[in-house]
Amino acid sequence: MIYAIVDIETTGGYAASNGITEIAVFVHDGTKVIDNFETLVNPMQPIPYFIQTMTGITNEMVKDAPTFKDVANEVKVFIDGCDLGGYNSNRFDIPILMEEFLRVGLEI
After folding, report:
1. 106 Cβ contact partners less than 8 Å away, ≥ 6 residues apart
2. What's the longest Cα–Cα distance across the chain?
3. Engineering a disulfide at 69: which of 46, 83, 98, 104 sits with its beta carbon 3.0 to 4.6 angstroms away?
């Protein structure tokens, strides 16, 4: 079994009104990491000060980063056919990731 371990940072806690600021995907075969993808993401909205202090990701850091639309196909390739997981992923990472894919017209 192949797993995609997903970790994201966002502009806030709700998928409908917030954007991804950083995404990391580690593909794991049950024994070791076999591939990974990591990037900052321009959320196309300001990052609240509270979130900047919590994550360490600032507006300056993401201003020239790709948008999620720019990296969506690459992320999709990493997670296709994998069991998705991560810390608190069912309540946070996965719902927000699914919402972002829907916004750019992709389904996972």
Report:
1. 72, 73, 76
2. 40
3. 104
For residue 45, give the amino acid letter. Answer: Q
Give pLDDT tens digits for 49-63.
Answer: 999 999 999 999 999
Which H or E run includes 55? helix 49-55
Distance CA 82, CA 17 (A): 27
User: For residues 45 and 79, what is the distance between their CA atoms, to the nearest angstrom?
Assistant: 26
Half-sphere exposure of 24 (CA within 13 A, CB side): 8
Task: Determine the residue type at 24.
Answer: A
* Residue 34, CA distances (Å) to 1, 43, 53, 89 in order: 12, 28, 32, 20
**Inter-residue contact 27 to 20 (CB < 8 Å):** no
